[in-house]
Amino acid sequence: MEGLRKAAPLVYACVSKGTYVICEYQPVLGEQDITTPRGRTEHENIIATARKNIGDFSRMDDVCHSLVYRGHTINFYRERPYIYVVVAVEKEGGAELPSMVLKRMAAEITPKNRQLPSVIAMTRELKAIIDAGNGVKMTMISQVEDELDAVADIMVENINAVINRGESIASLVDKTSNLGVDARVFRTRAKQVVRKIWWQRAKVHGALVAIILLALYALISTVCGGLSLPSCR
Question: Which intervals of the chain form a coiled coil (predicted)?
Fold first, then answer.
């Protein structure tokens, strides 16, 4: 069965973390792809094989690995925690071009997006690298597409910032609500403490009045000749 009828040497590329594909890019075919008996095109078969072998490569200890499939080379490069994949036409790409592209992908895509990973930004970088490898010149349409992608990327980041801010506001509301509950509990306990102190003072005052009255009675009974006060009647 024939391979892809495409002049460009690079036909597919992706970046994965383990077996999860973060971003991918495949140039538009120059000619109609060939349909296989299973209903998938030859191009889809090659891409499916490349993605399937990511799992096999992730279990290897090798940094680089290549295999040949239907006139194409499927090339893998590992720079933890990422795996970079490039599929090239064997006769067009050779061995040097995929190797150079893989190293450029590792050097330019993930380091720029390590702090705040963005699928849109990573895909845009991947597209630029693959198109450069295929010798595609920047046209007015592609420039506009890149500008739109950049605007979309900024919008996504702004939305994420708004979402994070919303979480902060919700957290602040929760804290304010908790402060309100704490204030009500404090007022209740303060009233209880004030009431307790008032009763303690009332008891002390009552005891002092009783002591004073007893002292006066004792003094008067002494002067008046006894408890029944016989001399003072």
Answer: none
